[in-house]
Automatic annotation (TrEMBL):
Keyword ATP-binding on entry: no
Record-given protein name: Iron transporter
MF terms (GO), sorted A to Z: transition metal ion binding
Highest taxon of the lineage: Bacteria
Residues of the Ferrous iron transporter FeoA-like domain: 2-73
Alphabetical list of PANTHER family matching this protein: FE(2+) TRANSPORT PROTEIN A (PTHR42954:SF2)
Swiss-Prot/TrEMBL keywords: Iron
Originating species: Flavihumibacter solisilvae
């Protein structure tokens, strides 16, 4: 499994799990739940934050948040 923070722009992944339970509820409220498809849309020039599409809307995540999300690439 990879971390969402390591996924390239334009790639689609599926959320598998979270590393940090403290951030789990916050991410879940934003639509980042296991099984949900996520597309990485953009990364800031220095890599932080990243923009993703999840549950039909755009979301900006800091790298430290994205590092806590384990994903699997969609074939």
């Amino acid at each position: 499994m990879k971390r969402l923070s390591d996924i390239g722009i334009g790639r689609v992944v599926v959320i598998k799990s979270f590393e940090n339970n403290e951030i789990f509820l916050k991410l879940m409220e934003m639509g980042c739940v296991p099984g949900e498809h996520v597309r990485v849309e953009q990364k800031a020039p220095l890599g932080d934050p990243i923009a993703i599409t999840v549950s039909g809307y755009n979301l900006s995540l800091r790298l430290d948040e994205a590092r806590n999300i384990f994903v699997e690439e969609v074939a």
